[in-house]
Amino acid sequence: MTSVDLNADLAEGFGAYACGDDEAMLDVVTSANVACGLHAGDPEIMVRAFKLAKTKGVAVGAHPGFPDLWGFGRRRIPFSPGEIERLVAYQIGAAQALANYAGHRVTYVKTHGALGNVAAEDRTVADAVARAVRAVDRDLRLLANTLTVQVSAGETAGLEVVQEIFADRGYAEDGRLIPRGEPGALITAADEAAERVLSMITAGAIVTASGRRLPTPIQSVCVHGDSAHAIDTARAVRARLEGAGVAVIPFRT
């Protein structure tokens, strides 16, 4: 691989509450997943993120999650597939409106937190997300966890799917993320995360906790923007990739 996208979840504050350093992260990443107001974010924070991204030449996507401000969208809520479809469509529309207001354009969708985890495991939920994206704008790409049913659901819906790995999360033997709270779930050392990402991109495979390699396309790398070490990790990942001759560019300009 000669190029890869680097993305992060941004605009995840709410009102007076800040979360992460969006401005610093936008100096490093090539795509920004902007929270849409239900798990985090609000119109002021979203517009600021879209304007900053536009100024810095960073692509933007809608980052819908469960309506769960208290739990930061990381608690599983038993909505029906139809309810999930409408919640996702609602959030994409909000992101598109505010991006347009800020002079930018949403080009993709990536699910957040628990919604993303459920969509990675449950084909009915993955299909609901894909239907919502297609209904709002079939030209939007779907940024999906690689080796999950999100990929096949997006392809079945006729969407262009971009497959991503996580720089700061560990992988179980089946290719899924190790659940938060379990040993090996979080990669907190920036240099370790950077070396891990390069090894996966070079191999064209996810590397699991045991060292097993699961071949897969890798078109984007995510660094979670809300962690204390997020900026250092993103910088280390980008520097390691570019130092190895891998161009870090958005998957859609």
What do you see in this structure?
The protein has 253 residues and is α/β, with parallel strands linked by helices. It has one domain (3-248): TIM Barrel. The chain contains eight helices and ten strands. It has helices at residues 22-25, 43-56, 81-102, 113-121, 123-136, 149-156, 190-203, 230-243; strands at residues 3-10, 31-35, 59-63, 106-109, 141-145, 161-166, 205-207, 213-215, 220-223, 247-248. The strands form two sheets. Strands 1-2-3-4-5-6-9 form a seven-stranded parallel beta barrel, surrounded by four helices. Strand 5 (141-145), helix 6 and strand 6 (161-166) form a beta-alpha-beta unit. It is globular, with a radius of gyration of 16 Å. The two termini are 18 Å apart. The mean pLDDT is 96.
Core attributes:
39% helix, 253 residues, 8 helices, 7-stranded parallel beta barrel, alpha/beta, 18% strand, TIM Barrel
Biggest sheet: strand arrangement: 1-2-3-4-5-6-9
Total of helices: 8
- The CATH superfamily appears as Glycoside hydrolase/deacetylase
CATH architecture: Alpha-Beta Barrel
Rg from Cα: 16 Å
Q: Unreliable segments (pLDDT under 50, ≥5 consecutive)?
A: none
Instruction: Report how far the terminal alpha carbons are from each other.
Output: 18 Å
Largest sheet report = 7 strands, parallel, barrel
**Into which percent range does the helicity of residues fall?**
25-40%
N to C succession of SSEs:
EHEHEHEHHEHEHEEEHE
Beta fraction: 15-25%
CATH class: Alpha Beta
Shape: globular
